[in-house]
Each structure stands twice: as structure tokens, then as C-alpha cells.
Predict the structure.
Amino acid sequence: MSNPPTSPAFVIDRQALQESIELLNDLRARSGCRVLYSIKALPFTPVLKWLKPHVDGFSVSSLFEAQLAFEVVDKKQSIHLTTPGIRPDEITQLSQMCSHISFNSLNQRQTFCSTEHEAVSMGLRVNPKLSFASDERFDPCRLHSKLGVDINTIDAQHIADITGLHIHTVFSQCDYASLLQTLDKLQQQLGEFFTQLQWLNLGGGYLFKDIKEHQDFIQLIRTLRQKYALEVYIEPGKAVIGDALSLVATVIDCFISDAKTIAVLDTSVNHNPEVFEYQRQPEILESNDLGAHQVMLVGSTCLAGDVFGEYPFMHTVKIGDTITFPKVGAYTLVKANRFNGYNYPAIYSDDAGILSCLKRYDYADYRQHWLVD
Ligand SMILES: Cc1ncc(COP(=O)(O)O)c(C=O)c1O
């Protein structure tokens, strides 16, 4: 790939996206699952439009996401919503756009599950109370969780007027052990109701491309479909878009600070906020473990902790060098901000080496955000 003319820039690798699509198509063909793209990972409409012919719909978590998905979907496609945040004044509009709504609590179910919205397939998000994440910030089943109805409290009465169940319990899993264990528990405790239901949504959280053997997944979906006549949905986000975007930046200053080489980039952790949020050192393409030149890559904002980390290079880093952060497709651009007044990166697509600019932001966007006339 040649460098985009604008720096910093997000570059969408169409080939990587195509590979995600092909894998999900294959899993769908072999298992019979239905695939939704969870737009919270990256709600960029060119991506939604590229995905649209290949998915059964989109999964959303708010009114705005629902509105954006609704602008893109075909009539026959679904929009599934689950969120702890449904507002009373939104439910009518949501039910005009969403085909499926999974209520996050019994209270929400009671308040919003009404025959008034009969075009919507109403479901319940279940918390299976099985934790797999070591960091509780990523664990929807953590103690005192706000996500879903405790599986131990659900009875026939709660299922009576709903048509589906939703679970989402893991983050970036590279095997299906947690899914199998969770479905075992779900079948043991709620299996008697499954034949009353039409669908089961297994959420996202699995990095399908990083999983070598899919037979367990395929078998599980087939069993759920055959035994209970359920439609089974998955709603991956990161597995679809995670490895398809890179952030390409440029070194704009270099100096020594307390005997370390500091390279200032024309980007910042505000363009990749999870670096700071989770204190994670992101991968870059240009470093080399064998390199003798240690360089601290930092962002260009006033925040002292706007630091990407220290990397080894084969050569000294100099002004004008390119630094590429790969695999930043999920939860990066969507969380980016313009702290310090630094612009958002432009967005390009890379189609077999041909770069096209899809979106560029400028002062007018910044001004529109902040100025009150
Ligand atoms: C309910 C729900 N579904 C799907 C997803 C997508 O998960 P991932 O991007 O890890 O596949 C999330 C992510 O937080 C979620 O909360």
C-alpha cells in the first residue's frame, strides 16, 4: 500500500474485510446461523453498505445507531437492538425501525413490551452468570452486572410474551469453550422454554478469524436449530472490522528527553482512545524486535500520558517517517475525539493498492460542533 496523501489517516483494507465476509458466509452456510454486523464497532456507512449484501442485518445499541442502520438496510433485513438505555420517549421510534428488541431488564420488559409494537419481535437479554473475562471491566457477567436478566430469576411468566433470548458475555475470545459452556447452562435452566421461542441471539465477542477449528460452533448452531426450531443469530463487531483498518501517522518531531528518543506523531491516543483507557501498547508495523534503536512514540496533545509506548527500530526514527498502527478497526474511530482541537484522521479505502478518500474532516466540522451562533 502507498501512503495516503493525508496524515494521519485511517485506511480500510477491503481485502481484509472481504476475508471476514467470506469466513462468516462459510460459517452461515455450514451452520445455518444468521449474521448481523454489530455497528457499535464501526458505524461508518461505506462499511455498512459493503457489508449489507452479505449480512442478515445489523445489531444496534441506541436510537442513533438504529437510525443509521435503518438508512442502510434492505426491507428484508433485520435490525436487532439491545441496550440498558431505552428511554420512554424513544420506544415508538425504535419500534418503527427495529425488527427485534431485547430488553435488558424485567422492568424494561414490563414497561415497553406492549402489543402496541406488535411488528417488533420482543426478546429478553439474559445474564447467564458465567464469567470468562479476567478483567471485570469487560465482563457482562460480573458481580452486580447491569447487563441482562439474571438467569436464576427467569421463569415461565417472563417468557410468556416474548419471542427470543439474547446473550452477550465475552470479549475477543479465540475459541468456543465459553460459548459451549454458556449454552449448556442456558439449555439446562431455560431449555424447557426454547420451543416456545423463535430466536436466540448469541451476541458478539468471538474473533472468528483467530479460531482455527469451527466444528463445535457449527454443531452447536445446528443442534439449536434442529432440536428447538430456533433461528440463531450472531452479531460480531470486532471479528468483522477489527483487522481491516490501520491508522497511518507521521513523525513530526524528534528529540531526546532524559536520555530517551522521543518521536512526536501527528496523531494521539485520542484517535485510538483504548490505548489510554486500558493502558495498552498498540502494535506498529515499523518496529523490529531485533532493532537497537529504542524510541518512545508519543501523541501531539498536551496530555503528559499521551504516549503509545517504547518500540525498537532498526534505524533511528526521523521527522517524516511513517508509523502504522494495524488492526484498529473496532472501537477506535468510533471512540476518537478532537481533544486539543486536533482534527480526526481522514478515512481512505485501500482496494488492492488503490487508495480512495472516503471522508475528510475540516475546521467547519469542528466549528459546527462547538460554535453557538
Ligand atoms: C450486545 C453486544 N453485541 C455485540 C457486540 C459486539 O462484540 P464484538 O465487537 O466483541 O464482536 C457487543 C460489544 O460490546 C455487544 O455489547
Q: What stands out?
A: The CA atoms of residues 2 and 107 lie 54 Å apart. Residues 32-236 form a domain with the TIM Barrel fold (CATH 3.20.20.10).
